[in-house]
Amino acid sequence: MSVSRVPVRVAVEGLGEARGSLIRILSPRTVDAIIKILPLEGRAAVWQNEVYFEIPLKMGVEKPRDFARKGDMAYWPLGKALCIFFGDMRPHSPVNLIGQISEGIDLFAKVKSGSKIKIEKI
């Protein structure tokens, strides 16, 4: 396993799974903290072109971004949540970019609020 990129699988109950990577260089402290608490599971919330769920992590901003692109994975400090963007958009407040979905991003456009999501290392 690469130190700089950690491959992950994101499973959405009833819809399937996507694959991506957590990328340390984007937000090293945030990515390291998330890796330590994987696997993560939660109930999805949907807002505009974003699916997110609360995780047990409280961190501040690190290299904050106020715009996200399709496929970006991010940590949202204000909501203590992991976010997956399935379209380009401006988040509610700045996010820490943590990775990228490389396969199956279109799956997230079908996610309904309350769906169970699990993210784990592969």
Structure commentary:
With 122 residues, the chain is mainly β. The protein has one domain (5-121): Cyclophilin, CATH 2.40.100. 8% of the residues lie in helices and 45% in strands. The protein contains 1 helix and 10 strands. The protein has one helix at residues 28-37; strands spanning 5-12, 16-23, 40-43, 45-47, 50-54, 64-65, 72-76, 81-85, 95-103, 116-121. Strands 1, 2, 3, 4, 5, 6, 7, 8, 9 and 10 form a 10-stranded antiparallel beta sheet that branches. A hairpin with a 4-residue loop joins β7 and β8 (81-85). It is globular. The termini are close together. The model has no long low-confidence stretch (mean pLDDT 96).
Short description:
The chain has 122 residues and is mainly β. It has one helix at 28-37; strands at residues 5-12, 16-23, 40-43, 45-47, 50-54, 64-65, 72-76, 81-85, 95-103, 116-121.
